[in-house]
Design a protein that fits this description.
The protein is of the alpha/beta class. Helices cover 42% and strands 14% of the residues. It has helices at 17-24, 40-51, 67-77, 87-90, 108-115, 132-141, 152-168, 177-185, 219-222, 232-240, 242-254, 293-301, 333-343, 347-363, 371-382, 391-410; strands at 30-35, 56-63, 81-84, 103-106, 122-125, 145-148, 171-174, 194-201, 262-266, 272-278, 283-287. Strands 4-3-2-1-5-6-7 form a seven-stranded parallel β-sheet, sandwiched between helices. Strand 3 (81-84), helix 4 and strand 4 form a beta-alpha-beta unit. Helix 6 packs parallel to helix 7 and helix 14 runs parallel beside helix 16. The relative contact order is 0.13. The chain binds nicotinamide-adenine-dinucleotide and magnesium ion. Residues 176-178, 247 line the site of magnesium ion.
């Protein structure tokens, strides 16, 4: 196994002095910027913050256009800043509707500048989709500590982001529950002692539905996840298992492991959040009920642990843990994720953009459920692959892939 990249703090034994000086001792205040505060992860982050008043202080809340919910959050949490990225939505805000002490900033550039503020101890990157790359990049470029929910950042530009973090001294702590579990399991050995990493997947709502009927799946059916409550895009990704495909790529870059050491294991109860097998055969897992408030809090308090609002495992209840291999015929997206994790280069950005556009096409009724993986496979195969792209090339290919899918969906 390759070494863990410097940007991901190797799981520590005792808390280091440098970690303590970054606002992680038991009694220090942690100032938090929540990017995407009105979304599912954003709201769960504010739950975690509210459960430890005086410990976590929301410094900045940002959303694209949901002005009403953002202003409600501003009145409740009194951040120094609220940022509305969409200028048209921001134009509807009356300055007197802000609470005293909270200032309004508008647009992407303002967000880039504000996340770089050294007063911020943790940036929670919880904007959905490729749109999250820009502000995450700005936070990493400024050397901030990033609690990363936006997996698309690493799917699109993993090597560039990890290299940037190494240069600036930024730390990236995963929020994705599987990666948070792996981050914790890796404490049990050295990077060279890891044999393989098993990412668990619930299997989504169609784990047992006859494969021949998958073409008829409706958006309402795909949006009903059996174990997790999440935003619409990631919920559809869970139904196609593209979410797990993206998570394989995320793990590839975050932990610096070759794709050959990454596997997916279907676990319908969503209690075991991932497993690491070491060379001696020991398998270390992290268990908890499916509740994102735990990995969010882990990323806010790391390397410390705190009591918090997440549901706890009730061992007085019967506990059944099932595991099975995924069915590649039913979930062709998984193969695309492994391929992109193996090839790297431009593959992740193209797969991600094609998928975002195809999910939108499915939700709008222009594509069938089974078209999502098929369209992604076609765009991935047709794209002009490059092994070591710059950020501008990735942005251009993102736009190209979306265009390809749009023309497919309009046929
Ligand atoms: P969501 O759709 O519920 O919320 C998205 C948030 O992003 C909203 O606050 C929205 O205003 C904001 N946003 C969207 N586009 C924006 C833009 N251009 N500029 C600024 N803000 C913008 O999404 P979610 O389910 O909370 O997911 C957020 C991220 O976390 C995704 O990358 C997802 O893959 C990841 N994630 C989510 C979960 C989960 O349980 N929901 C679990 C693991 C990882
Ligand atoms: Mg996940």
């Amino acid at each position: 196994m390759q070494r863990l990249p410097g940007a991901l703090v190797p799981p520590p034994q005792p808390v280091s002095r440098s970690a303590e000086s970054r606002g992680t001792t038991a009694d220090e205040i942690v100032r938090v910027a929540v990017l995407g505060s009105t979304g599912s992860i954003g709201r769960s982050t504010l739950d975690v913050i509210a459960a430890s008043p005086g410990r976590f202080v929301p410094h900045l809340l940002a959303a694209r256009q949901s002005v009403g919910p953002l202003l409600e959050q501003a009145h409740r949490f009194r951040p120094a800043w609220v940022v509305i990225v969409d200028p048209d939505a921001a134009a509807t805000v009356d300055a007197t509707s802000l609470p005293p002490g909270t200032r309004l900033a508008v647009g992407d550039e303002a967000l880039d500048e504000l996340v770089a503020d050294p007063a911020i101890d943790r940036v929670v990157a919880a904007i959905v989709g490729a749109a999250g790359l820009r502000s995450t990049w700005a936070a990493v470029a400024a050397g901030r500590t990033v609690a990363l929910a936006n997996k698309e950042t690493l799917v699109m530009a993993g090597p560039l982001v990890m290299r940037l973090a190494e240069r600036t001294g930024a730390t990236i702590i995963p929020v994705d529950s599987e990666h948070a579990a792996i981050h914790q399991a890796l404490c049990s050995g050295r990077p060279t002692e890891v044999a393989r990493i098993l990412l668990t997947a619930s299997g989504g709502p169609f784990r047992t539905r006859p494969a021949a009927t998958l073409a008829d799946v409706t958006p309402a059916e795909a949006l009903r996840h059996p174990t997790w409550s999440m935003g619409p895009k990631i919920t559809v990704d869970s139904a196609t298992m593209m979410n797990k495909a993206l998570e394989l790529i995320e793990a590839r870059w975050l932990f610096g492991v070759p794709a050959a050491q990454l596997e997916v294991l279907v676990h319908p109860q969503s209690i075991v959040h991932s497993l690491v097998e070491f060379v001696d055969g020991s398998v270390i897992a992290q268990l908890s009920p499916p509740d994102m408030r735990l990995p969010i809090q882990y990323a806010l308090s790391y390397p410390r642990r705190l009591p918090g609002p997440a549901r706890r495992l009730d061992v007085a209840m019967p506990l059944t843990l099932d595991f099975e291999p995924p069915d590649p015929a039913r979930f062709p997206a998984l193969r695309l994720g492994l391929e992109a994790a193996e090839r790297g280069g431009t593959s992740g950005a193209v797969l991600n953009a094609a998928n975002e556009e195809a999910v939108q096409g499915f939700l709008d009724g222009r594509l069938r459920f089974t078209d999502i993986a098929e369209v992604c496979a076609g765009v991935l195969a047709a794209h002009p692959y490059r092994s070591d792209p710059e950020l501008d090339e990735l942005r251009a290919l993102d736009a190209w892939a979306r265009q390809e899918v749009a023309s497919w969906a309009s046929v």
